[in-house]
Design brief:
- This protein has 372 residues and is an alpha/beta fold.
- It folds into two domains: 188 residues, Glycogen Phosphorylase B (Rossmann fold, 3-Layer(aba) Sandwich), CATH 3.40.50; 166 residues, Glycogen Phosphorylase B (Rossmann fold, 3-Layer(aba) Sandwich), CATH 3.40.50.2000.
- 40% of the residues lie in helices and 16% in strands.
- The chain has a seven-stranded parallel β-sheet with strand order 3-2-1-4-5-6-7, sandwiched between helices.
- α8 links the parallel β9 and β10.
- It is globular, with a radius of gyration of 21 Å.
- It starts with a strand and ends with a helix.
- The structure holds ligand GMT.
């Protein structure tokens, strides 16, 4: 099979990469087709192949046509390696490229393609008037569609009025790789004394409300000693750094930038902050939960399908920073309460979202689409 995704940091690329790695470990031949080697992908692993899409520039092309270069490469790889299936992540433009590749190969090679919707491809980008009709078209023409939460499935039907089945297959986590073991990184790298560690992990886009994390930290520190680790990079990183200086908490925040091994870092945290305005699932929260880190998140989109308020994390309204800060204090000020919630968070990851449960659902769906 072929997998196409955005190779840079972002939830959809991570899910696509982890899925490909898990499928290869189960014996499938997996061919990644993208403009760069996806982050977290080791192309030297058995049954993993990587094919780069080269986009030539030409003075006429103010916007080099990546969508076409990708379609050509998909068709070439599908033919050379006898692919049965392309699985593209994030509708725009991957789904359209897959459709073109399918049409280029027909009738001499039967190639089916599945599109997985991740969130902003529907909720933000897809609803932009310039992309709306083509996004709907790509959904209608995919041989199979999956979405990572029931919320996103319903939103897609509601916004695009599409009639095809959208199969919900949630995000997943490998609970052997992501576990509470603090073997690799130590809290003492960042704090001394008993300060508790809060974490935020995102691409720092405005939808993530990364600046809220700084404000929450400032509020928490009025009651408890805490240090914030900001992991990732993106447009709101500099504004967040500026805000930390303005609020006088800059020495209590560490900006770590992009990290290749978040599974080594997450276990040092007590609480994960996910104050997003919208989140169709919240992969960062799931990865944290698998590591026994308690999420304090917002009650938006598909997040309630992951976090059960009061059991394995807390859900508050976006922008209600007093409530979010209060929840953090509740967790970090009571060791017994923290341990109970951390165990429940790990249990949720293990019993509802572990790879051993979710990957077979993809395999089953592939069989259905290939057999249909
Ligand atoms: O928001 C991101 O981190 C990027 C975005 C993407 O598509 O790369 O993430 C979306 O996909 C993730 C993986 O399926 C989901 O866990 C995130 O909730 C979703 N982000 C949003 O809906 C804002």
């Amino acid at each position: 099979m072929g997998i196409t995704c955005y190779p840079t940091y972002g939830g959809s690329g991570i899910v696509a990469t982890e899925l490909g790695l898990e499928l290869a470990a189960r014996g499938h031949q997996v061919h990644f087709i993208s403009y760069a080697n996806p982050i977290r992908l080791d192309p030297g692993l058995p049954r993993i192949n990587y094919h780069e899409v080269e986009v030539s520039t030409y003075p006429l092309f103010q916007y080099p046509p990546y969508c076409l270069a990708l379609a050509s490469r998909m068709a070439e790889v599908a033919e050379n390696y006898d692919l049965d299936l392309l699985h593209v992540h994030y509708a725009i433009p991957h789904s359209i490229s897959a459709l073109l590749a399918q049409q280029m190969l027909a009738p001499r090679h039967r190639l089916r393609f599945i599109t997985t919707l991740h969130g902003t491809d529907i909720t933000l980008v897809g609803t932009d008037p310039s992309y709306f009709p083509i996004t709907r078209f790509s959904i209608e023409r995919s041989n199979g569609i999956t979405s990572i939460s029931t919320y996103l499935q319903q939103e897609t039907v509601h916004v695009f009025g599409v009639g095809n089945e959208i199969r919900v297959i949630p995000n997943f986590v490998n609970c052997e790789t992501y576990h509470p073991d603090r073997r690799h990184r130590k809290a003492s790298e960042f704090v001394s004394g008993g300060a508790k560690i809060l974490l935020h992990l995102s691409n720092f886009r405005p939808v993530k409300r990364a600046l809220d994390c700084i404000r929450i930290l400032a509020k928490v520190r009025q009651q408890e000693a805490a240090h914030l680790l900001m992991v990732g990079d993106g447009p709101d990183r500099s504004p967040a750094q500026r805000l930390a200086r303005e609020l006088g908490v800059e020495s209590h925040v560490t900006f770590l930038g992009k990290q290749d091994h978040v599974e080594r870092l997450l276990p040092v945290g007590h609480v994960l902050l996910l104050p997003s305005r919208l989140e169709s699932f919240g992969l960062a929260a799931l990865e944290a939960m698998a590591c026994g880190v308690v999420p304090v998140a917002t009650n938006v989109g598909g997040v309630p399908e992951l976090i059960t308020h009061g059991l394995d994390g807390y859900l508050e309204q976006p922008g209600d920073l007093d409530a979010q800060a209060e929840r953090v204090v509740e967790i970090i000020s009571d060791r017994t309460h923290h341990q109970k919630m951390a165990a429940a968070a790990r249990q949720t990851a293990l019993t509802r979202f572990s790879t051993s449960l979710i990957i077979p659902r993809y395999e089953q769906y592939y069989s259905e689409i290939l057999g249909s």
